[in-house]
Structure formats: structure tokens, C-alpha cells
Automatic annotation (TrEMBL):
Domain Amine oxidase residue range list: 17-422
Cofactors required: FAD
GO molecular function (one): oxidoreductase activity
Protein name: Monoamine oxidase
Amino acid sequence: MKRQTVRTDVAIVGAGFTGLSAAHELSKAGINLALLEARGRVGGRVESQWNGLGERIDSGGQFLCEDMPELMALVRARGKTLVETYAKGEFVAQPLTGAKQVERIYHASMSIRDRMNAIAPGDPAIAGLTVAAWLDRQNDPGEAKAAFRSMIQGLWCQALEKLPLWHLIDNDRRITNEVSELQYFVLETMQSLADDLAGDLGDRLRLNTPVRTIERRPGGVRLASTTGSITARIALIAMPPMMASKLDFAPPLPAALQRALGVWQSGAVIKVQMRYATAFWRARGLSGMVMWRDPPALFACDASKDDGHPALVVFVGGPLALRWRELGDAALRTEVMARLRQALGTDADDFIDFSCRDWTDDRWSGGGYADLIIDTSATEAEKTILAGAPPVYFASSELSPSFPGYVEGAIVAGRIAAQKILREFNPQ
């Protein structure tokens, strides 16, 4: 295949929601651009796949809520259908306990989280502390601590022993929804939103184009991919920090920026979805929502598109995902079904489809749902990455001022990056 050399104003690397959003903002402003994506699809950690019944399901990022304004506006603008996640009925906790004890444990775990978030991220008293070390110092009952651990490792898909306390507090403060983040999902799949955005870009989007080298040179940058090279005035690296750190920059990035990109690690998550002939849990007065304290970071909820498509989704996160991925497909299914059977009864065995997506070591994203800082001393990492090394800039959901690690955060991050780049073209 003939290698091509393309010239443009801005080259964007990564066509997840950050790159797509940045591309749209720049395109509206009349900037010539090329959006380069290593995969054969757009969306990044948002993805859909066909299950065994021929139904399109979300195998990546899925849920949203009304407190995510940019994503909700995009859903409406693109004419998508919101499905309200079924949440009526009883919540099940594992190991099984009485309803009053479940409520007591839940409120106690949330009290730990509230206490944590009352600490200022920059408080010298927590310098160098991981979340695990801080949790060990708390005087709460063991069950409340176990529920807190399961909740945090399930949300962030990372071991508490690796998470800096200040980083978790800072992230939590930027996630401002007051209603459940599981409030809705998109009937047509979240991936369909990314596809719509991609369709607007035409031939400015180049799939199956992994960028290998980014060369900073006088007057701009040169990006080398497997299909050719692109020269541009500015490059925007719209990738998770850990994946951005693996790119080859020439000359090397400033040492502080290299270090800042290198302190992140992707989360580990496996997403499983079962389709059933009937929503048997509803008939028993259950919501389908299950949270396990043991093993931690295991969570299930109802993901039925309508009464004709009953479904449960199970998320396996953090260290548990890393252990279970080593089992192989058959043994992983056995583990998941054994836990569901304990929680919801033998009807859980009667699925008509079992679909699994392992994100623990994804080639182009590193993992899911997001990257997290794993160095307790790296308090300036985000600021350093956002400053970039002009004409090379960085953006990702992880760096967003709102909803880091979510699609909402990716959209916001992309738009902020686009405005920064536009100021380069139109200085005030």
C-alpha cells in the first residue's frame, strides 16, 4: 500500500469521545484537521457488540444520568432514546444479610466516603497515604469497611493499596451527580453516539491508523503512522495518559511531562451481560441490583432494554478482574454464575445468552473504565500534562474538570482542548 503524506492544521490522535468532541469543535471553527484512530472503530472505551441473539449491546461504557449535561444534550441532539434503568424492588447484598443490616452497612460505608471527601486533597496530614492505609486507620465496623472497599474498587477498578488518597478525593469532588449514574442508558447503544459524531467528520477521520512517532519540529509536528505521515501545526493527543506515555516522541518530551504521563495505570474491568426469557428477579420483588462485599468490586444490575429483552449486567472490577481473567472463559462464567445463583436463586442459571468483554488489558486503551494516578507524590501530574509541550497538547476524560473517567468528562475535556487550540490560531 502506498504511504501517504498529509498536511493539515491539527492532528488529533485518538477517536474516543475526547478526540471526537475536540474534532467537532475545531471543525465548526473552520480548522482543517485529521483525526487518527488505531482501531477500526471510534468510541475508545465505549463499544458495542452483537450478542448471541443478534442484539446490539453495550460492551463498554453504557450508563448516564440527567446530571451529566453535555452527554444528555448530545443524546437529545442526536435523537437517541433513553431507557430508564429498572431500579424498583429490593437491593441484594452479598453475603446475604437482613434488610435492616444491609441498610445499616450501606449507610456506614457512605459515611466513610463522606468523611473521606471532607478532607482537603492538599491536606499535609494525608500526604503519601493510599486509600487502603487511610481506611485501616478508621474505627468503623469491618462490614462497613468491606462495603466501602467494594464500592471504591468497583467504581475505579483499581486496588485501594495503589490509589493515593488525595487523588481519589479530588476525583470524587469532580463527580457531582445527585441522581444515580445508572439512571439511564441509550437504547441504540452509547456506541451509536460516537458513530454519529464520526459520520459528521467524513474523510477527516482515519481509522486503522495507529500513530507510532510524534516528531516536534520548527513550525509544527510530524506524526508517523503505519499508513504514512501527517504534518500539522498542532497535535492533540486525545488518549488515556498511560497509553499516551507509550508513544514515541522525538525529541523526548520534557522530563517532568514524561514522569507525569508515567504515573497512571488503567483500571481492570470485565463486563458480562446475560439475557433471559423473563425478568425473574422482578417477579420476586427484586431490582436486580446486587453488590458483593466478598468478593469486593463485583456488582450487578438490571440492563433490560424493555420487557421483551430482560437482561442483567455484571461488572467485575479491580484485583478480582485480574484474578478471574486468568481462569479462562468457561471458569470465569462458572464463577459469575455461582455468585448470581447465591444472590438471586437458581433462576439465574436459565440465561439464553452470555456475553463477556474483558477490558483488563485492552490493546488500545490499556483497560477500563479509566486511568488513575498510582504515585502518592504525583500531585502535579494533571497540571503538567494539561500544559503539554507545545505544539503537542494532551486531553482525556481523566484530565477533565468534571466527571473524570466518564463519557461526560471526555466530552468536556475534548471541548476544553479545542478552545485552547483555537486560541493558538486566534490569539487575543
